Input
Amino acid sequence: MSHEETPVPEIRVHPIKNGTVIDHITAGQALNVLNILNIPNAASGVISIIINAPSVHGIKDVVKIEGRELNVDEVDKISLISPKATINIIRNFEVSEKTHVHIPEIVDGVVKCINPNCISNSNEPVSSKFTVSTDGQRIILRCLYCERIISEDIGNHLL
Amino acid sequence: MTFKDLHIISMKSFSRDMIDHILDTAEKLEPIASGKTKSDLLAGKVLAVMFFEPSTRTRMSFETAMMRLGGDVLSLGSVDASSIAKGETLADTIRVVDGYSNAIVLRHNKEGAAQLASEFSSVPIINAGDGAGHHPTQTFLDLYTIRRESHLEGLKIALAGDLKYGRTVHSLCYALSLYGAEITLISPKELRMPAEIIEDLRSRNIKVTETDSIEEAIADVDVLYATRIQKERFPDPAEYRKVANSLQITTELLEKAKPDLKVMHPLPRTNEIDPKVDDTPHACYFNQSFYGVPVRMALLALVMGALE
Ligand SMILES: [Zn+2]
Output
């Protein structure tokens, strides 16, 4: 085993009985993930955060949440800032489901358009909508109204 | 191919077949546009013209198109005096006007306004410009002008002036890429065409050349399309004058051109074209502005279902 492969985040944090482990979060995005999940406001259990943990594919962040499973909207949002994340649902100390985040084709009401002159940023009765694509590395959002592209720091533009 | 109830929002949703059909239809309607023949093709139909920012020429062109086809025009009055000043949303305004009309022409200062309007309208929306966004009828009339005055197939075209901010020039380039045009871009370095657009065009196998000299490019092209250079893009007035003079189209310059070169300009011009050029066979910018009428007639008749 090479040096990089040795550390496993699980040894640094206690296992959880029921909840979710979000693994392989893009390094530096853990706090944005918490923001998406409205943590700490919407959580009662223990939350563990690991930032810059070494892994086989370089560094990553990990978030463990006790007593909570994520809904589809939350997972969609996470996919935008962390397309390689995996969601592990833990039931009775065991991984009962493990899924990769799925990148949606369209996100609705999730990200605010960065164009101040976009009609979606006025008081019209519509939510912001973006088509989602990827160039293999980055997620590319294109506003359905003004066509402005957001491909960097998406976490800063989450609604 | 049916255009009935189609929203005209962005050139991107038009294939070459669709564009050709619109241009063919415009050509058939041209005698009516010039008043040689009368028509009541759109009799009993109402076009709502909603301009949230002024653009007299575009508005008059749409109104003429509707009236030449025997239809009626309903105009949104001054924006200040209307309910918009009271804070009504565009969505609400559209839902009201939708009940009064068979199609809505919309010009708005916010990007994406036409897309939003289309989500609330049961009648077709025609985008007449949304902020720095799309202005598809301008592109259709540019294409029509090129087809009537020169040729679309195997075209060599030079675009000169402000290529950075001119979105109509951008969508014209995309549309011309459907016809395999060779494109020369002439601009000062401050106002160059965005790199991603050039990349897109090249990925469509379009030959694109960039230069800052009109003299170099002019000998070889069929169409020279000039755009307005806005003074306010330049922090230094001296720099503006330098650029404006270096890109000016004069009769001396045109001596180097092909005899059938056509000069286009979306108007209004400032000093991109010397008025002496007006009297040469190269000038086609006034024809170009007339061609807006048959093109808009074609679009109106098609989306209202009066023509197939
Ligand atoms: Zn937008």
